[in-house]
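The material for today's practical consists of a large collection of protein records. There is nothing in a record beyond a sequence line and a structure line. Backbone structure tokens are a discrete shorthand for how the chain folds in space. Nothing more is needed to start thinking about how sequence determines fold. As an example, a complete record with its sequence and its structure tokens follows.
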Amino acid sequence: MTNTQPSHLDNRPVGQHLILVGNGDSHLHVAAHAERLVQRGARVTLVTRQDFAFADWLGGMLGGEWQLDDVRLPADRIVAHGGEHVAAEVVQVDRQQRRITLEDGRQLDYDWLSLDLPPVVDEHAIPGFYTAKGVFTASADDLWILRQRLETQLAGATGDLPSIAVIGNGPTAVELAANLLALGERYGRRLTVTLVGNDRRPLPGACQRANRWLLQRLHRRGLRLELVATATRYDRNQLILDDGSGVDADLLLVTEHLRPSPGLTPFGLETDGNGRIAVGPALRSREDPRLFLARGLLADLAHPPTTRERAALLLEALDQTLSGESRTLRYDQFERWKALNLGDLRDIAWRGSLWCRGRWVRRWKHRRDRREVAHYLGNA
């Protein structure tokens, strides 16, 4: 996509240079509020070839509510918020000199570096993964391909429909499973969908009543639930669980069993046995204090932070670093109402022990989401 960087940025006095590498969800939030960092005297540069995807609409896109072009947000709109966009990939990093080299040979010096590169499926996590008829991640492109594939079969008057297993825990896996059901409901046909996760509650951060209502709702719509279960292997169109039972699954939708993006390799960061990179409470690398990792491993958490909580934490940490302030930051400082699109007009929202559900939740979520998208796009 064309870089529409405004000319006035070329003449701006250069202060601290913050480079954002990657098109992850947290960087979308930072890009939408880049003016806040610019006001701290920083020059903010986003380096990515790919556009952003609005995470809160991915479930709805899978369920037939949104189109792919709706959820894609141009990376170069960061210029509307005082930042710059460079459409390139990083091929070499000199952390000692604080310099990155791009694929076209250009070099950029930085004071601070933030990495947010979407992960990829770990093909070795579950033996037999790629003998399935299709393996998909929760990325916008993968979900769009899965939806098109399913719609082709749903639109046919005859023929068996594929069975689908959603492997993962937490809100993302629940929302995707619910919207697969919704996609079948749009065509008046039922898709066989199973949610496989090792948590006892589908929404670990919500209260027991909210989880009970959600389970009952999904069960009535035909979702098969395999909770407190772990997939051990895939064999002949079945996902084999740790108790030896099998789940019919022609297609796999994976929200866990992921490994860091290959794009992190040039940065030379140490990883644990699972390929994860440890960070401090403010998402700052323990190995290099000049680096922030939006997807780094936060230790000793009761349940993983949501996408929105990570994004808010990263923005606050960058703002604090640029301003020279020193405050203790924790992801739970940014806890807000969370909402899921269940694909049947009766969405659910929760915050700690509080929760609600119904059509008005859907309306509130739509207003919030549309406001955020409009803010990022500016006058586009």
Notes: The chain has two domains: 7-119+260-336, 121-257. DSSP finds nine helices and 23 strands in the chain. The domain at 7-119+260-336 is CATH 3.50.50.60 (FAD/NAD(P)-binding domain).
